[in-house]
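[Discussion] Sanity-checking designs against the backbone

I'm trying to build intuition for which residues belong where. Below is a structure token string of 223 positions. I'd appreciate it if someone posts a full sequence so I can compare it with mine line by line.
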């Protein structure tokens, strides 16, 4: 229950109200093994998903075998939400378990039908959902900003500046293959460019962390 209470979806909702929501909405908790599809392109959207444990890739697979990673879903965040308010009849992308995952599946009908009492917690849930939609729209806008640049070095630079902390560190939430898919390049090309940027004194690369050594130099790469 604590994992649910700490999520943005159930922000400002009490434990008692949460229990009522789960019962009324007929939500269920389900597990998916690593590599499995939680939903696929062209599938019929009927649920909202809240990630309780693990990690999920939101991606689009092409017939050529190429995979474009839009973003990663971390624990406590929702996915499948952009199909909730709109007229799309099918999923446009895939949701793939990067690790073994546990999700809460909430039927969409619950968001459309208020009870006769118009409960405050139901209103709060809808408000939370709108805030989540806004946040995830920002993620997609950020991805478009990255892939619209002309060179791989520019893409890496924008991603680094957006992701680094105050000390210039980027803790890698993606493996090298996932990061390459996110940036829209082949993995060997990404690895070569990271090594070149390290040789130029711009960054330092380790297994789980990239440290920006020259912030001004990295920022100048995409001006």
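Best answer:
Here's mine. Compare freely.
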């Amino acid at each position: 229950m604590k994992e649910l209470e700490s999520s943005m979806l159930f922000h400002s909702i009490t434990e008692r109200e949460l229990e009522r929501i789960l019962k009324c909405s007929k939500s269920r908790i389900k597990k998916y093994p690593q590599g499995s599809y939680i939903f696929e392109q062209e599938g019929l959207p009927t649920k909202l998903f809240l990630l309780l444990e693990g990690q999920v890739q939101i991606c689009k697979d092409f017939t050529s075998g190429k995979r474009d990673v839009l973003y990663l879903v971390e624990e406590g965040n929702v996915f499948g939400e952009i199909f909730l308010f709109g007229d799309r009849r099918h999923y446009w992308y895939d949701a793939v378990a990067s690790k073994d995952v546990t999700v809460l599946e909430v039927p969409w009908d619950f968001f459309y039908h208020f009870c006769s009492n118009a409960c405050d917690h139901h209103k709060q849930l809808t408000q939370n959902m709108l805030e989540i939609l806004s946040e995830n729209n920002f993620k997609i806008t950020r991805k478009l900003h990255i892939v619209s640049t002309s060179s791989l070095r520019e893409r890496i630079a924008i991603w680094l500046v957006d992701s680094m902390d105050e000390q210039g560190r980027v803790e890698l939430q993606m493996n090298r293959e996932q990061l390459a898919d996110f940036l829209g390049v082949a993995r060997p090309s990404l690895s070569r460019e990271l090594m070149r940027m390290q040789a130029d004194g711009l960054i330092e690369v380790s297994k789980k962390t990239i440290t920006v050594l020259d912030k001004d130099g990295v920022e100048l790469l995409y001006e």
